[in-house]
Amino acid sequence: MARKSQLANVVTMIPGYSENSKSGGRTTNSAIPGMWDDIFHGDNRRSLPSSLKAATTKNKSLEEYPSRTFPDYRVKTGLKLSFETNGKTISSPTVSQERDLAPITLEGERSKGRDLMANLDGSEGFLQANRKGPFFKKQEVNVGDVEGLRASLIFGGNDTYLVEAKKRGYTLSQLFPRARVPGNLANFYLTPPAFYAFLDVVFMADGAKIVRVWDASRYPAHALYLGDSQVDKPPFREGTEWTRDGKNPAFDEFVLDGTSPDRTPFRPFAQLGDRYRKTFDDGKGPHPVMEEAQGGSKLQAQTLESQFSSPMFPSPF
Hints:
By secondary structure, this protein is of the alpha+beta class. The protein has one domain (2-308). The chain contains seven helices and 14 strands. The protein has helices at residues 52-55, 112-118, 160-168, 172-175, 183-190, 249-258, 301-307; strands spanning 2-13, 60-61, 69-70, 75-85, 90-101, 104-105, 126-127, 130-143, 146-158, 195-204, 209-216, 221-226, 229-232, 290-294. The longest helix has 10 residues, at 249-258.
């Protein structure tokens, strides 16, 4: 019996350019739209790399935090499936979650909104993201006489500063005095949505596998990795899904999800959207979906696609 394992990850990132003024950057230089980009950092990269190792580095340097570096991404949602096998049966199956949220960091430009937000963090000057989930499930499966393992995970997070500011009773007029806040940016504050991914992995004894991201937040950029290799990503293009001048269609749709418990697994101020499963539509519409299927020594990829054509919702859905 040999031990086999399979790793799958979704990496979520806010694209953009340098926001470090000393190197010629500017505060509004990422896919965070409008005045919110004056307060929060993006990830200072234009796209997600082809390698998982490169995509999940923690080398982001910010002039406001000269003594440390930060992750080059927002969320990592991962599953590692492993078992002993003779190519047909499995034993000693294990599933581990490999998930991470990057801290939320503030821009250095002095403004009323930025200064009020800075009163919410401690001595480190940043906050950990507000975790949503994880929701997780695993089970053993079989296709004919070939055994396998399946696991699913829904995980994400949103901006802790926004949540804490609302708890303190900060109003938009306090954060942005003398400014007219557009409706989409106001709704982002009133009902802050979460970045998330719904990952579902099937790994069979013969090496066949199918990895699906049934759903992911409309914003920002996501990519799917199998092992260390990127295998799929939905479009998140500068000039189409986002621009540096604040026109951000993907963000607008993301904000609309925050007002609807039907279209996201996470309500803005609660862990569970209890209508999500009932109204789930397999990522139809603007939501990203990703997939990679590979055959094994006995099973073809198309067989797995047919056998596992519906999502496995994790608990507590």
